[in-house]
Request: fold
Amino acid sequence: MSQFLASSHLNLSGLILCPLLGSIILLVIPDSRIQLIRSIGLCTSLITFLYSLFFWIEFDNSTAKFQFVESIRWLPYSNINLYIGIDGISLFFVVLTTFLIPICILVGWSSIKSYKKEYMIAFLICESLMIAVFCMLDLLLFYVFFESVLIPMFIIIGIWGSRQRKIQAAYQFFLYTLLGSVFMLLAILFIFFQTGTTDLRILLTTEFSERRQILLWIAFFASFSVKVPMVPVHIWLPEAHVEAPTAGSVILAGILLKLGTYGFLRFSIPMFPEATFFFIPFICTLSVIAIIYTSLTTVRQIDLKKMIAYSSVAHMNFVTIGMFSLNIQGIEGSILLMLSHGLVSSALFLCVGALYDRHKTRLVKYYGGLVSIMPIFCTIFLFFTLANMSLPGSSSFIGEFLILIGAFQRNSLVATLAALGMILGAAYSLWLYNRVVFGNFKPNFLKKFSDLNRREVLIFLPFIVGVIWMGVYPEVFLECMHTSVSNLVQHGKFD
Amino acid sequence: MYLLIVTLPLPGSFVAGAFGRFLGSRGTATITTMCVSLSFPFPLIAFYEVALGASVRYIKIASWIFSEMFDASRGFLFDSSTVVMLIVVTFVSSLVYLYSISYMSEDPHSLRFMCYLFISISFTPMPVTGDNFIQLFLGWEGVGPALYSSINSWFTRLQANKAAIKAMPVNRVGDFGSALGIMGVFTPPQTVDFSTIFACASVFSEPNHFFVFCNMRFHAITVIRILLFIGAAGKFAQIGLHTRLPDVMEGLTPVSASIYVATMVTAGVFMIARCPPSYENSPNALIVITFVGAMTSFFAATTGILQNDLKRVIAYLICSQSGYMIFACGISNYSVSVYHLMNYAFLKALLPLSAGSVIHAMSDEQDMRKMGGLASLLPFTYAMMLIGSLSLIGFPFLTGFHPKDVIPELAYTKYTISGNFAFWLGSVSVFLSAYHSFRLLFLTFLAPTNSFKRDILGCHDAPILMAILLICLAFGSIFVGYLAKDMMIGLGTNFWANFLFISPQNEILAESEFATPTTIKLIPIMFSTLGAFVAYNVNFLANELIFALKTTSSGNGLYCFLNKCRFFDKVFNDFIVRSLPRFGYEVSFKASDKGAIEILGPYGISYTFRELAKQISKLQSGFVYHYAFAMSIGLTIFITIIGLRDFLSFWVDNRLYFIYTVTFLFLNLEGDISTN
Reply:
């Protein structure tokens, strides 16, 4: 066992292939044996999760270089290799991905009524693609996987989505993301023609002239900002969330949104440091606008999922502020907030999903007084609502506070305006909670009286543990990032 | 043991919340009471060791958030002010808790209520004991949700829901200030640790340390202090952020009201009392604090005299007193402020609890106008209320007398504008608060009765458990001030060691003791007696008086102005609370998200393409001669261009051909074809 654990035996390609293998096995099993399909899907995802934990255990905190590196020849004649590895920045995204997929599979356990096998397969493929994105250290292949995640996601929204509008949503989702990434592809080609390689190791040591940096940065920004999402291009997110099935929302909020900010952190900031510096005011302005604007929009939503989606936009823009404060606190805070948002907003979507499964509506005005019929649910919902408004002791607080600290040192105005989001966050979170949980019970609309069952409580439990753990002892997460993040800051000479 | 003080209430709330349904309300009550009563002796021992034994405790457990220079550890600091606060907080909150077991015994949701109460009890020691700003912030914020959920404990009442939603964001406005303040604190010395910051406070108060905000320079330490003060004011219900207090009091049960007062308000004043070294270094911040404190006490006192809801009146009394504590800090007498806080903790618990007893007895009637003559029905409660009120208005040698005697004197001997301002406003509000606490007493207990027969018949005095607890508090409100006076604010006392640092030029305790003219010294006590006297004599006439006032138009305006809390709520509601969501819907959601962005974005694109496709498809008429015509035209143009290439290329860029060709796609040929 100990020999197996030795880092030389852990390989990332195995981690990427593991869910893929599971989905191939699932393909050959006939549709009728649903119990077997479910258990294989769950087992595969759990094994992947456990396997990814070994990477965390074996991770070496003391170095900033990429670990568990593998290189496979792909297009040798044009010098493009499949080159994978993780460092302190990407480690937790991999773990977060593998953590969320078993949850998604459990969510679809009984609520998915059609195409059950395909559901499992879609999520497993999605998982392996997302792990690949976070591990990929080759620019072109990053692009390939970054885009390919869209396909299973498009299918998930399109097939298991709830209403007729899902086609619109899937279309918007696809349109926005694809439109942005065209520019990124052009930029990648441009880089390839200048340097002759798309290997990140080499690119990190390449210096582009300042004008080129700015052009390339804008091209990357066009793609990443859609995923974050930044303000003028954010409208796909509420649509997609509302139409997606619960598990789809979890993936969307938990992982897909992080692709954009991860991209900034992995490519834009270290490769184009001068352009990054040049664009700080731009990014900060957009993010601050987004925080205030989407928070205010959230206050007036009546669809539960839309509220959480809009509040996700606000949180993700907190992340960009932290990231572009370009100091260690800001960046570490932004990574932590991303992780925390992955847990908290996913859990909130699960809460909404639990309500939707019972009452078949997501409109806030049909709910009320749930505290008297669903006490366990209300406690859990309160926990995540408080975490969403970043109460100290929860994971979001650590992230948000570090971000604000970082931002304050870069620009106090930005920090002040961003901190306004705290007030608005309290307003909409509590309004939502009050409407759903307190007040008079509405027996005309709510006909079912079942609290969470054991499976659902089991689903929420890891989230609660994660949020408290991150909030009370974030050191475990922070210590893995220190070296990589300070290397990032040093590398760009931002201090 | 020191850690037990902080952690012991936590399992209590967990038990009540998670296992309450198995234990039943009696079982839960037993276990939680055990937790409370176990946690009470520890602060006493701590008080003995730390304050009397003069040995400061500093416990560092583990690192919490650590990122580059930012290092917030889980550390606890027990100095004199901490242990004083701890005693007050644990004593009051455990008494109140016991009271609640009796008070809420008939409530169907008493378990949930106990859990909420316990959460607030368990969060209270956090801000007091933390050794860095983040720890303080943790405890500080943690009280918020506890408050939110306990306001909501009668969740079907719309008023309670509204108050709950209002409480948190207003609270958050304060936290917004304190979060910014903490960031500001962190920026110059790169630490959030109390001791380090205070050690270097004088260095960073030099004018060369400033923040740039919107390209303007602000003196660092003043900005930090004012921001932190906003945070404190949010907790402490100072003017502007006080709007929450009356609503909260109305929504809460008397029990949670007193917990709230004991905990939140403590946290607020403690914030200021914790950081004297840095306040001392920013005179401007001190002036702001003095003004705000004095104005709060005056505003609250004037509003309170025309309120009719029992709990609201008490809320405004408390608000007015908290103003006192703040301006005592503003004239840099932190020890007096803490002393005042400690004394008033007993009164503040006693008054809402006795009011609760009245409300309980009157079957949940809260309007004072519908009470009256209860003294003979509830003699015990009346006695308790009387003790509380006398002590509150500063009847000589009761607990409330000592600080109330000292604070205006100190303000006077400051000999500054802010000091004088505070002195006169303070004295006037002494008069007003004396008037309105006695008005409460008369209306409720002495005036001819106005209540319903049904209520009077069901009226009963406090049950034995509640009575014992009230007696404990009443003892506190009689004796504590006398016992602690020389220890805490006596001349030359060494009780606070170095923790309440007062810079030498601000030290005025001796001055006020010996140099104040006797008339000035007598003003507060005279005013308060006068207030009570006026209340006694006027109140029987008050109805006619107020009625006469209300019928004149200007009098009516004034009455409404004061009764409606100077329209703070209205202003906030109309200008902020209504306009922001309006923006959220009309502008950001409807006009932009569902309007401009969508039209210019996905729907615009799909619409354009659809229209374009329609137009192009019209070209496909199916007639051969149309196609032949188009081909021949195209060919002619093409050949012409090729033929003239040499000629054209002189003055036309080659790349324009592309645009020229593409333009054909967009030509509107509809007209041509339809004519054919």
